[in-house]
């Protein structure tokens, strides 16, 4: 089916804006290089920088140079510009030498063969409608907005899953989480639920951190991991970030939960815990009732039976309370590399500590190249916010938390500017998935706003749970202010980083992401994605078809969650929507034209869309082809792997008396 079949009077996705001179020349050089040179490129040492400066100058490639020669201030220098300076015409060799010397001092010398520093910023549970640059004019996010103004903003950027663990697994590996076993078949275990569980990102998966580490990057992760910790013993740390390509880790290997703050309503398996508590109370009555016949002198109940029942009730209680009764101590842990720094974490200080570590990592690795992945704890409940920002926004605790996160982004950008790294650093901002609509307490909304998009966190294929912010800034390469309205994915970061770092993608596995650089630079008009598959756990709920010849994006839903109460826009009664069981199957499927109906409010049918059957048939063929590429993988989120195991529980001290605060005498200064 071609675009000529669709009579919509709608122009295809608009072409990229006219590029600035240096970005265009950089793109032309990259296109002419050929893939072999891209794969093998490496940093020139200080002695070779002069030669690089000369060759780039002679090829008319604009080169930001750190030196000031012949009255030309730091910025772009081409051969023609240099030759207009009389003294430069006579002393080109001196110019080259000075360029080579000073270009290596602060890491601001950019050539087409140099590799940028990379800073990845990922929010937790942030709604796309929570940012000013995405249409919210009531929340103050000036620093993230600055990134959007100075870079490229993606308006159809999509997570591979609407839950933390599978989405982050796909982000790290460039692969659908079902391929790595990081997708669940159970509603209760949609993500990793215990730091002392035995599931995690498999050790045979290659993350983008590992690719860049092999290319000579210094790699660091600051913040949330949530990809598992140990396999067989407490200290093996097989799933630890340091075993997945990161040289340095400081943060929470699990992440924040409402349970991390004693005053908050428990979040982890809240309904199950209530059920277990009520069941324990009911069972505790059994030994008491067994005493009634003896006390009433009806007949004698053996004391052994009474004691046995009491012991069984006690064991049942200890069996579940030993885990659920100490969630804060077991899951809310702060680590530096393999060492526990706080257990449980002091939630009021953790944001300052993480920011301190992020800034320190940049300063330690200014010589570059480095990869810094800042995985914010914001804006997940319990919305821990510094006193300075409390009451700062119009939207209560959630808005305050968003604005504090924006301030932290500003601090990271500030250190890049101060150290002269901004022009040579690719900065990317996103969220792991959409905002949580069900996060509420005492009438206040504690989750994000997903704009006009239907649904939210945990809701399979609905747009609100998977459409996320996507902002790239690279001043030396990407044109400021561009907006791209093409389907892109968090999985695309993997091949994109491999490309800009000169790495080679693994050839022994399917990589689902696509290199975004041609699209970001404006060298192509359309995304390489034709089909994107939207899973809820291991269940395929929806498929997106990008009809490139006319820019139309179709969305086909086979399964949707059943909202509760009836008529609501989320699963408020359950706390989170189901992937299976309490869902609605659609035959024929629901079909939407996302190009014209991004809120998925007007389903199409054969009566109002002549191409309905053709679209459904095309998507079904794509689903069959996609499923042929899937191979069995060990289920990391199985029931057994999701159980809390005392022998895997990280512990600072002697188990079960775990607890420490090694940051007590180290006040953060940012």
From TrEMBL:
Protein transport keyword on record: no
Transmembrane spans: 274-292, 298-321
Pfam families on file: Sulfatase (PF00884), Sulfatase_C (PF14707)
Cofactor annotation: Ca(2+)
Record has Membrane as a keyword: yes
Gene Ontology CC: endoplasmic reticulum
Keywords: Calcium, Hydrolase, Membrane, Metal-binding, Transmembrane, Transmembrane helix
Composition skew (Basic and acidic residues), residue ranges: 26-39
SUPFAM superfamilies linked to this entry: Alkaline phosphatase-like
Signal sequence, renumbered to the chain: none
GO molecular function term, any single one: metal ion binding
InterPro entries: Alkaline_phosphatase_core_sf, Sulfatase, Sulfatase_CS, Sulfatase_N
PANTHER family reported for this sequence: ARYLSULFATASE FAMILY MEMBER (PTHR42693), ARYLSULFATASE H (PTHR42693:SF16)
Protein name from the UniProt record: Arylsulfatase family member H
Gene source species: Myotis myotis
């Amino acid at each position: 089916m071609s675009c000529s079949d669709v009579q919509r009077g709608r122009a295809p996705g608009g072409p990229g804006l006219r590029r600035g001179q240096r970005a265009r020349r950089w793109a032309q050089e990259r296109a002419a290089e050929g893939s072999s040179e891209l794969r093998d490129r490496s940093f020139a040492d200080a002695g070779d920088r002069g030669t690089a400066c000369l060759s780039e100058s002679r090829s008319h490639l604009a080169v930001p140079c750190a030196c000031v020669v012949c009255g030309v201030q730091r910025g772009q220098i081409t051969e023609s510009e240099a030759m207009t300076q009389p003294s430069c015409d006579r002393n080109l060799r001196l110019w080259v030498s000075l360029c080579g010397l000073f270009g290596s001092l602060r890491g601001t010398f950019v050539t087409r063969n140099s590799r940028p520093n990379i800073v990845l910023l990922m929010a937790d549970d942030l709604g796309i409608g929570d940012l000013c640059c995405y249409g919210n004019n009531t929340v103050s996010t000036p620093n993230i907005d600055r990134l959007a103004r100075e870079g490229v903003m993606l308006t159809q950027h999509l997570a591979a899953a609407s839950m933390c663990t599978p989405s982050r697994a796909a982000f790290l590996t460039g692969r659908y989480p079902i391929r790595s076993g990081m997708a669940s078949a159970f509603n209760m275990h949609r993500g990793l639920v215990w730091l002392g569980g035995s599931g995690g990102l498999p050790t045979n998966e290659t993350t983008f951190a590992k690719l860049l580490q092999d290319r000579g990057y210094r790699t660091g992760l600051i913040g949330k991991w949530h990809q598992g910790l140990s396999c067989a013993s407490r200290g093996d740390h097989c799933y630890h970030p340091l075993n997945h390509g990161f040289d340095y880790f400081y943060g929470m290997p699990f992440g924040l939960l409402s349970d991390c703050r004693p005053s908050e309503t428990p979040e982890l398996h809240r309904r199950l815990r209530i059920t277990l508590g009520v069941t324990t109370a009911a069972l505790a009555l059994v030994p008491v009732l067994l005493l009634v016949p003896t006390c009433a002198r009806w007949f004698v109940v053996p004391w052994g039976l009474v004691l046995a029942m009491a012991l069984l009730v006690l064991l049942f209680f200890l069996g579940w309370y030993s885990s659920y009764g100490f969630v804060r101590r077991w899951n809310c842990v702060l680590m530096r590399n393999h060492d526990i720094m706080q257990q449980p974490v002091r939630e009021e200080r953790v944001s300052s500590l993480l920011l301190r570590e992020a800034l320190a990592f940049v300063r330690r690795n200014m010589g570059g190249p480095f990869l810094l992945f800042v995985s914010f704890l914001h804006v997940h409940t319990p919305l821990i916010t510094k006193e300075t920002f409390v009451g700062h926004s119009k939207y209560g605790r959630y808005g305050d938390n968003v604005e504090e996160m924006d301030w932290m982004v500003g601090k990271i950008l500030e250190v890049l500017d101060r150290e002269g790294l901004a022009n040579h650093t690719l900065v990317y901002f996103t969220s792991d998935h959409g905002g949580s609509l069900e996060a509420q307490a005492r009438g206040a909304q504690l989750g994000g706003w997903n704009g006009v998009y239907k649904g939210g966190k945990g809701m399979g294929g609905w747009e609100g749970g998977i459409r996320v912010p996507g902002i790239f800034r690279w001043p030396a390469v990407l044109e400021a202010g561009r907006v791209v309205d093409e389907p892109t994915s968090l999985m695309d970061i993997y091949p994109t980083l491999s490309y800009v770092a000169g790495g080679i993608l693994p050839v022994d596995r399917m990589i689902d992401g696509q290199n975004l650089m041609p699209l970001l630079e404006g060298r192509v008009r359309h995304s390489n994605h034709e089909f994107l598959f939207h899973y809820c756990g291991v269940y395929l709920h929806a498929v997106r078809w990008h009809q490139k010849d006319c820019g139309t994006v179709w969305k086909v839903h086979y399964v949707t969650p059943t909202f509760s109460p009836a008529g609501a826009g989320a699963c408020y009664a359950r706390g989170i929507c189901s992937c299976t069981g309490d869902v609605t199957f659609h035959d024929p499927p629901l079909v939407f034209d996302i190009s014209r109906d991004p809120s998925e409010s007007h389903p199409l049918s054969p009566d109002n869309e002549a191409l309905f059957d053709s679209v459904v048939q095309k998507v079904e063929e794509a689903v069959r082809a996609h499923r042929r590429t899937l191979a069995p993988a060990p289920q990391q989120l199985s029931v057994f792997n999701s159980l809390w195991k005392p022998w895997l529980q990280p512990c600072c001290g002697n188990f079960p008396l775990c607890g420490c605060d090694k940051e007590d005498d180290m006040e953060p200064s940012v």
